[in-house]
Write a structure and sequence with these properties.
CATH class of the largest domain: Mainly Beta
Structural class: alpha+beta
Radius of gyration: 63 Å
Number of domains: 3
Shape: rod-shaped
Bound molecules: zinc ion
Order of helices and strands: HHHHEEEEEEEEEEEEH
Distance between the termini: 185 Å
Number of strands: 12
Helix content: 40-55%
């Protein structure tokens, strides 16, 4: 069936043409509707998205401002629990660190104090040892440069409690070590007499002096002149009578001096 046929049958042709137009219109309407739908859908999507975004932004902004406001009013309670816990942990850590630092400083100070005390104790110990050594090993010297003229011991039926040195008149009698003068003066038998306390129970005595050169209570050094040789008291001639007393008991001065590193001149008796 061709156009020619339609042309031949005019009403059918007209009817057909009308239908054709209707179909065309319908298609157009559908296209337009579809386009509208697409556009609408796009708009809706766009609008929806925009609204959602705007809403989200607005909510976020609102939330932020609320938080800020709350934070201003009450910083602690406004913070999320986790943040607060984190903050507490940080504070605890800081506190612990501070405590640890403090403890370390304390320990360091204690160690320093202990070291200082130890050093001081060591110094005191050394000083005590030095003093003990000095007490045990003082600087001793001979009481006279002259020869020994009479020994310690029994003599003429009685006890001779010292050493005699054959000093010439006026020759010095020397303190054998450092000490304090505990007696100066006249003693029957001894004449002009000097006693020196050297500490540790050690005393020395110097008799028959012509002249005493030290005063009571005076401190003397080893080799210091305590008196000048004479012939006072029970004496048969000028000489130095020298005694060593340990806790008040006279001992033989010769071995005692030798024990203390002093070698007196040869005994000529
Ligand atoms: Zn004597």
């Amino acid at each position: 069936m061709g156009i020619h046929d339609l042309s031949d049958k005019h009403p059918d042709r007209e009817s057909s043409s009308r239908r054709l137009r209707a179909v065309e219109r319908l298609r157009r309407i559908r296209r337009e509707r579809h386009t509208r739908r697409l556009v609408t859908a796009g708009l809706v999507t766009a609008i929806t998205t925009g609204v959602v975004l705007a809403t989200a932004c607005g909510q976020a902004a609102e939330a932020r401002s609320e938080r800020a406001a709350e934070a201003l009013n009450s910083p602690q309670t406004a913070w999320p629990v986790e943040t607060v816990l984190d903050e507490i942990a940080v504070q605890r850590e800081a506190a612990r660190s501070a405590v640890e630092v403090g403890a370390a400083a304390e320990a360091e100070k204690r160690a320093l104090d202990e070291a200082e005390a130890e050093v001081q104790a060591e110094a005191e110990r050394e000083a005590a040892e030095a003093a003990a050594y000095e007490a045990a090993h003082p600087h001793w010297v001979t009481p006279s440069d002259d020869e020994i003229s009479s020994d310690f011991g029994e003599r003429w039926g009685r006890m001779h409690e010292g050493l005699d040195f054959a000093n010439e008149p006026g020759e010095p009698n020397l303190a054998i070590g450092d000490g304090t003068v505990t007696f100066t003066g006249w003693v029957s038998g001894y004449g002009n007499f000097v006693v020196i306390d050297h500490g540790g129970g050690i005393e020395t005595a110097y008799g028959h002096a012509d002249e005493i050169l030290v005063n009571l209570g005076e401190d003397v050094d080893p080799g210091e002149k305590v008196s000048l040789t004479g012939n006072t008291g029970h004496s048969t001639g000028p000489h130095l009578h020298f005694e060593v007393r340990i806790h008040g008991v006279p001992v033989d001065p010769l071995p005692w001096l030798e024990d203390h590193g002093v070698v007196p001149p040869e005994n000529d008796t």
